[in-house]
Design goal:
6 helices; mainly alpha; globular
Amino acid sequence: MGNEYALLFLFRQLSVLKTMKTNKLDLRFSVMTLMILLAAMSRLLPHPPNFAPIGGMALFGAAYFNKRYWAFLVPIISMWISDLVLNNVVYAQYFNRFVWFYGGSLFTYGAFALIVLFGMLSLKKIRLPNLIASALGSSVIFFLVSNFGVWFSGAMYPKTVSGLLACYTAGIPFFHNTILGDLVYTGVLFGVFALCVRKIPQLSYRHANV
């Protein structure tokens, strides 16, 4: 009889520990996901051309999601949701149908995935110099991939080397906004999360399986 009570007590303690761990995982995952989603939805606010949260979101996910697939899925799905709202509500007058994916979106999401991979390598240690270098690197990646997509999938430029160079040249005036957007959103996301960790220690749960 005593052994049965001991086993029952042990199972209850394991259940409590499992619940505590799950709550920590859920809280951390929820906060990170909400921050990324809010960053994506900030695209609905008035902003300069190319001043976007893409780099910051990708780097934030790469740095803090332990499970690699969440680092890709959460930012990309959040961006896709904001694209749905932009294309079917804000810019609905420019389309004669419901837009699930816009032309060139494959290159945009491809750039997003490359930035996540880049962030996994560059942000193994989250320090200010690493964050600045990663934000600048993400700007370069997005510039190269997105403009290549405009050249490859559009009809604005001839499919020649000179046409590709002309496309990149046309994108240069917007590049500084890309850099500013990546620096600002990277700073905001990482800064806000650091403040949240100070206020809510559970968010610093380093072995979270998310």
